[in-house]
Design goal:
Blueprint lengths: L2 H26 L6 H13 L1 H11 L6 H20 L11 H14 L4 E9 L2 H13 L4 E6 L9 H12 L3 E7 H5 L4 H11 L2 E5 L15 E2 L3 E4 L3 E5 L11 H6 L2 E3 L2 E5 L2 H17 L21 E8 L7 H12 L3 E5 L7 H12 L3 E7 L5 H8 L2 H7 L2 E5 L3 E3 L3 E4 L3 E5 L5 H5 L1 E9 L1 H17 L1 E3 L1 H4 L4 H13 L4
Parallel strand pairs: 2-3, 3-4, 5-17, 8-14, 11-12, 12-13
Antiparallel strand pairs: 1-9, 1-10, 2-6, 6-7, 7-9, 10-17, 11-15, 13-18, 15-16, 16-17
Length: 489
């Protein structure tokens, strides 16, 4: 057989393989996906058939394995049974009908009801929030539950680790969950978890990628939650990881980057719901079902006229739908006066873009706070690709100044509704990350958030449409390219 014939046969075989890949992609990829995500995957595979297929096989599944989804459904059932057995009645007679429907939607999706009698204090100082958590741990008598996307033992977090060590010495059970990939890749990770072993903390990885141990799922499905619970009495939720504000990264340190965060210190029955999120993750990762959770009906509730109604909304690939995205959309559509969003990574899907621009068309004030700098190039450019259309719609965009990365994740609706938690306003947080969001109704809490938002305005500057239109073509070209890749989920 001559070389020309072999070459021709090779080309024919390659063409057949590419055709088979393309046909299979057309059949498999659109099923259950949003059109934008499906089109992005198809474009990648049509342009780069072999490479695209390999990437799809690695990160094309947006759900956790069936076993883990079944475990989440089981946990939802446990929560639902406990809710049915408890007294969680909240006086909703003065709520707008649309807001009552939103809380009902959340309960349907997550099994967590809204609970009253809560307090929440916002902490926007990075070191002060870690100190506040450590001080709460110093009061622990029974247990401490800690869950972070990134946990690291360094000079900034040393006070937190010391508090855990002292708690263990007093006979307090301290449990810690950390995301496997995120916490393993930071500096001195081995020292961090050796220290946890030394001080007697019971710890476990979240979503471990350990195929040799039979633990594997799509590698970029991560647990992004951040929370601390002490004795079921006090809890902390927000955007902050347990690490120095430079993330101990040489690249960040050389650029002088510092993370700016927002954390809420919570008391009241909502602490039980935050604790239930931890216990759910602990059960899934360890197989141990813990019964020490304090029922919400037994938690001391605030009787202040400023007491808050709170509802926890966990979300992620363990659920059948995007709980956080549905919450955010429902709130924006229900707003009557203003929508103020803070997100370090703002890469919305089409529904979110429509909700925001429709809010402007309805005459609402809409503001967006983002960082002037980006720490993740692809996400930063994808985010920028939305600025022009938002500015044209009348959305006011405020840029938080360098060298800070505004990592806070929260937004407020009108004057009495807000959300704070770990979820960004991006496709990754909607579909790929396990997140925790706390919905809050209470004018006193939103007043605190207004002070934080004003501090962002005072520190930064407003981006105008005229300024944006002077952006160099090279930058906007990259923005458009990475906007396409952002839909690969």
């Amino acid at each position: 057989m001559n070389s020309l014939l072999l070459a021709n046969l090779g080309w024919v075989a390659s063409a057949i393989i590419v055709l088979i890949i393309n046909i299979a992609a057309l059949i498999i990829i659109p099923k259950g996906r949003k059109p934008t995500a499906a089109m992005s995957w198809l474009l990648l595979i049509f342009l780069l058939p072999i490479a695209g297929l390999v990437i799809f096989l690695l990160i094309g599944n947006v759900k956790l394995p069936k076993k883990r989804r079944a475990e989440q459904a089981q946990i939802d059932g446990i929560i639902r049974d406990r809710v049915a057995a408890g007294d969680f009645a909240v006086d909703s007679t003065e709520w707008p009908t649309w807001f009552t429907r939103v809380t009902a939607q959340n309960t349907e999706l997550t099994s967590f009801p809204p609970v009253g009698g809560n307090t929440a204090e916002l902490i926007d100082d990075y070191e002060a929030s870690i100190i506040a958590m450590a001080e709460a741990i110093d009061t622990a008598e029974t247990y401490v539950h800690v869950e972070f996307y990134i946990a690291s033992w360094d000079e900034t977090t040393r006070v937190f680790f010391t508090a855990m060590e002292n708690a263990v010495a007093r006979g307090v059970t301290v449990r810690l969950l950390a995301d496997h990939i995120a916490s393993r890749k930071v500096a001195k990770a081995d020292e961090t978890f050796a220290e946890l072993d030394r001080i007697g903390v019971l710890w476990n990885w979240m979503l471990p990628v350990q195929p040799l141990k039979g633990k594997y799922q799509r590698p970029d499905l991560r647990n992004h939650r951040k929370l601390v619970v002490v004795d079921g009495r006090v809890a902390f939720v927000g955007s902050q990881n347990l690490i120095d504000r430079s993330y101990n990264s040489p690249k960040n340190i050389s650029r002088g980057l510092k993370w700016q965060e927002l954390v809420a210190r919570v008391t009241g029955p909502a602490v039980t719901e935050i604790d239930a999120v931890f216990l759910s993750d602990w059960l899934i990762e360890t197989g141990d079902q813990l019964d020490e959770i304090v029922p919400a009906s037994e938690v001391e509730a605030s009787t202040s006229p400023d007491a808050l109604v709170c509802q926890l909304v966990p979300s992620g690939p363990g659920y059948e739908t995007e709980n956080n995205l549905r919450l955010f959309l429902s709130l924006i559509h229900g707003a009557t006066e203003r929508v103020i969003i803070t997100s370090p990574y703002f890469v919305p899907d089409e529904a979110m873009v429509y909700a925001i621009t429709i809010a402007r068309q309805r005459g609402l004030e809409v503001q967006l706070f983002v960082s002037e700098l980006g720490d993740q190039g692809m996400v930063y450019h994808a985010q920028r690709s939305y600025y022009e259309s938002l500015l044209e719609a009348g959305v006011r965009i405020f840029l938080y100044p360098a060298p800070f990365i505004l990592h806070s994740k929260h937004f407020s609706i009108d004057d009495d509704i807000a959300v704070i938690g770990s979820s960004n306003m991006d496709i990754r947080s909607f579909t790929l990350n396990m997140e925790i969001s706390m919905l809050v109704r209470g004018a006193s809490f939103v007043a605190q958030m207004r002070e934080v938002e004003q501090a962002y305005r005072d520190a930064g500057r407003e981006l105008t449409l005229e300024e944006w239109r002077r952006e160099p073509a090279k930058s906007t070209f990259l923005d458009g390219v990475f906007r396409l890749t952002s839909a690969l989920n």
